[in-house]
């Protein structure tokens, strides 16, 4: 049976009272629940039903050993070690938590998540204990992708705080193509992760346009004494027609490309973008269409298919792709 939020809170309050005070009158349980919920008055029949449900409700599955002592006029746990928090999980629940804890454990020492490493470890330990109790097999046959340490993750927390509090920031930014850092004042709107790197997207104070900055290139971040400009930034709309973290202005072109049939299966089962469509299937290749900006990230992804892929149109994207391939060949000559 589904329970509302207040009922679930009352169960935990009753549980805590019976653990802390060993024996409690109905009046004490009512007072504790009223204080926890800030609801008054709470009827005796409500507590009576809560106790009944904690004892008997198959949906809750607490089966709490609550007894009543007529001499002391109070309720108590017949098993002094009992708590609704100690309920064992089912095998399928442990299996699901194993997946979740394994993924969570990968991020334990990464940037902002490092401050929660203790809590993550507790979750991992608890799941491992439960697994041992029901003798579930280890997932040695599943190998999750490792998340490497990324420079700049120490700026995650301050950037998050500035976005939440709508504060302008001054960034000392060391681009990969510069010898020294440059100052940028930005109104931050979004923190975005792409291929294990973090980026902040915001309005540039000087140029009055949306710019993207990689946290791995930041030298320092500090508050700026400038009024915040709220542009009502919509991340979904901004990145709708692009792959990666840069979104050029204007409508995107329609890009068509052919991929040999065997390699095409990778794109069919995992599309590059939501706009991807199959235009035609021939004997030896599949023709795809994308409606996106031809950003560096897109070209890099397409070049990863090497001789298995060829650009069909538009002509300017095709020429840029050919030039990139020719420049690659020159490095081997």
Explain what the structure shows.
By secondary structure, this protein is of the alpha+beta class. Helix content is 37%, strand content 21%. It is built from ten helices and twelve strands. Helix 1 packs across helix 2, helix 1 packs across helix 3 and helix 4 packs antiparallel against helix 5. It is elongated, with a radius of gyration of 29 Å. The relative contact order is 0.06. The mean pLDDT is 85.
Global morphology: elongated
Order of helices and strands: HEHHEEHHHEEEEEHEHEEHEH
Spatially, the strands of the biggest sheet line up as: 7-6-5-4-8
* Estimated radius of gyration: 29 Å
Beta content comes to 15-25%
Oligomer: single chain
Task: Name the descriptors.
333 residues; Arc Repressor Mutant, subunit A; SH3 type barrels; four-stranded antiparallel sheet; 21% strand
What order do the helices and strands come in, and which of them pair?
Blueprint: H1 5-20, E1 23-24, H2 26-37, H3 44-56, E2 66-69, E3 74-77, H4 91-106, H5 117-134, H6 156-165, E4 169-173, E5 182-194, E6 197-204, E7 210-214, E8 218-223, H7 235-238, E9 254-260, H8 261-269, E10 277-281, E11 285-291, H9 296-303, E12 309-313, H10 315-330
Antiparallel strand pairs: 1-3, 2-3, 4-5, 4-8, 5-6, 6-7, 9-11, 9-12, 10-11
Helix pairs in contact: 1-2, 1-3, 4-5
């Amino acid at each position: 049976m589904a329970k509302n939020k207040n009922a679930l809170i009352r169960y935990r309050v009753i549980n805590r009272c019976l653990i802390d005070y060993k024996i409690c009158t109905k009046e004490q349980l009512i007072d504790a629940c009223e204080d926890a919920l800030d609801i008054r008055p709470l009827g005796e029949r409500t507590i009576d039903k809560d106790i009944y449900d904690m004892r008997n409700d198959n949906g809750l599955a607490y089966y709490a050993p609550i007894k009543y002592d007529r001499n002391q006029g109070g309720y108590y746990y017949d098993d002094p070690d009992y708590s609704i928090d100690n309920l064992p999980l089912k095998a399928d629940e442990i299996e699901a938590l194993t997946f979740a804890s394994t993924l969570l454990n990968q991020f334990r020492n990464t940037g902002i998540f490092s401050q929660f490493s203790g809590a993550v470890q507790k979750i991992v330990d608890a799941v491992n204990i439960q697994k041992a109790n029901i003798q579930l097999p280890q997932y040695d046959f599943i190998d999750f992708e490792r998340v490497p340490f990324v420079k700049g993750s120490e700026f995650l927390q301050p950037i998050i705080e500035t976005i939440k509090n709508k504060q302008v920031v001054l960034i000392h930014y060391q681009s990969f193509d510069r010898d020294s850092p440059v100052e940028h004042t930005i109104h931050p709107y979004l923190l975005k992760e792409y291929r294990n790197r973090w980026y902040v997207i915001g309005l540039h104070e000087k140029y009055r346009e949306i710019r993207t900055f990689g946290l791995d290139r930041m030298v320092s971040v500090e508050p700026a004494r400038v009024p915040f400009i709220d542009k009502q930034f919509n991340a979904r709309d901004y990145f709708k027609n692009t792959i990666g973290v840069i979104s050029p202005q204007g409508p995107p072109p329609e890009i068509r490309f052919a991929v040999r049939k065997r390699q095409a299966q990778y794109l069919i089962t995992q599309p590059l973008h939501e706009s991807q469509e199959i235009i035609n299937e021939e004997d030896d290749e599949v023709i795809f269409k994308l409606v996106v900006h031809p950003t560096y990230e897109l070209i890099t992804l397409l070049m990863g298919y090497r001789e298995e892929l060829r650009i069909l149109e538009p002509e300017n994207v095709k020429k840029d792709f050919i030039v990139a391939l020719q420049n690659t060949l020159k490095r081997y000559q």
